[in-house]
Hints:
single chain, 422 residues, mainly alpha, two-stranded antiparallel ribbon
Amino acid sequence: MKFVALGIFLLTYILLLALPKYRAYIAIGSAVLFIVAGILPINKVFILVDWNVILMLAGTMGVVYLFIESKMPAKLADLIIQKTPNVKWAIISLALFAGVISAFIDNVATVLMVAPVALNIAKKLKISPVPSIIAIAVSSNLQGAATLVGDTTSILLGGYAGLDFLDFFWFNGRPGIFWVVEAGALISTLVLMYIFRKNKQPISTMEKTVVKDYFPTILLISLIILLILASFIPDKLAITNGIICMALFTIGLAAHYVKTKKKDVFLVALKEIDYFTLLLLAGLFIVIASISEAGIIQDISNLFVTLSGDNLFIVYTLIVWGSVVLSAFIDNIPYVATMLPVVTSISAAFGVAPYILYFGLLSGATLGGNLTPIGASANITALGILKKAGYDVSAKEFMKIGVPFTLAAVITGYILIWFIWA
């Protein structure tokens, strides 16, 4: 039975890599195979899906859609541009801005919001927008790991390890992953400053964006505040965070309808939720539970322990840098979902709390996507925007920025996590 489970799992991963457009259907199909093969009892299926993660992700996507529609992100970008003296600082400011909002909003949504501003600047100054939009994409990926709602991988870790919003800032009496990410962002910003040191063209004031609806901004701030407050509720429901996010999305939809009087407002907003990712996650939860039931998770963790020679630092190093390399070529959502139970098992074998390995996994998997153009959805989105604007970007051109940026951030995180949590 173990070999059958391993075969299905390997086939699943091969298909996920080979057919990225069909990942959700592959994950669901794989889950069905595990059930049909008798590896996972059908009565366990519903309870093995982490509904808190699913609802939280769906609600956050909805609130973010309303926030983007309000044009507030574009207005914030305009305000930043007004304060910058030249192209170098405009690019760095936009990258930092993208990073800040990406800590609370999906990375792809962040790129879609900020990239048009960079395109407008480039068009006005008659320069290539390629370097600035790549900088925006890699900065968005970096900050996604900073908070509970910043990226799907963060939501996965939070749901799996029972971490709340504040735990990303301060956890068990020590600085959380937020401060590690910010330290990495600081060092990688120095890298951007060096890369763009020659871009000193002056920049003039651009056309200002007008915001007519501030309610979505209030909703997004409320979402963050309520998730923080929920952190203090003892013995709360397992789906508390998911309920908060979905409730605020519902309120936002109702307010949007009252304001616009458009009958299709609900349908349009619901279409903006990424059901593909939600289906992928649901399928992966079942797949991972199945290989765990078959004992494969334990076998993988034993392999890591053997390779490390029972040395925690070596296994930590393997997880961080292995995650960087793998995430440069494969999607980090299925990778992190698979590795979380593996990391837990490894920690148990060493007799230590799993958090150092959790944070190492998250930092390596999230930042590793910046190494290549295909390593993260935000990168693919950025290159798609550039292609539409008439710019074909080679892997070499992307990696001139992505590689030094990634190495600076990962090395910083790698050192800090070990010294804080070892």
